[in-house]
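Sample entry (275 residues):
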Amino acid sequence: MDRANWTSFAADELDVRVVGKQLQFFSSVGSTNDLLKEQARLGAAEGLVFVTDEQVAGRGRRGRSWTAPAGTSLLVSMLLHPGWLPAGDAFLITILAAVAAAEAIESVTALDVDLKWPNDLQIEGRKLGGILVETEMSEAQLRWVVIGCGINVNWSPRAIPELAEIATSLSDELGRPIDRREVLRALLTRLDQRYDQLRQGARSALFDAWRSRLRTLGQSVRAETPSGPIFGVAHDVTLDGGLILRDDQGRQHIVMAGEVSIRTENKGTREQENK
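Predicted structure, serialized as tokens:
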């Protein structure tokens, strides 16, 4: 997709209250999240969205790099000012972004999208996209939140040996190219709706929608923690987003952050490092 098509999207009317009220498009940037954080610190209005065809310094959770061929993926960052949300509830924005992205993709493609805890987008265990949420806090309140979302749309991770078993794209799943504008429109619309609902108090509904999509639950997993790896079964999640694990000795652990990978059996136990 070329820049002219993105520009034509900017003229479209989005039925949104906040997210997508202002849109800026770029052919190539280092990181949309970094650019948007700069604007947030300068006082940019809530709802500003940056979209790019290429990121040369994109990154995912835990500092991992995020790369995709130019002009093939949806690479977008969105600015929110949820000052009404206590800082201790910031995880709700993370799960909101994951749920909204999954719902948006399903509305465009009719594919079933699930989540790897806490917010990786997956189709049948293969990673479709990732979400990176970055915040700035003032005392006990959130000053601003930047939500970065990368979705594999029109390229084939399965053609790359090291990605073939762990990643996918919309075009791989459907066998045809997808108009990225449709995915962007659906993403902004659904995230705006979910954000408005959360502001009105729909916390339980959001949490239930997130939990119901977690493919990790019930699986045998390996969790990387500061004190070392934990092997066990992902039993449930806590109300503040932690993953409840029961290890191989029956002890319970709560993981609030870290890499969790599903363990599979294939000629002996191995980890499926779906990162």
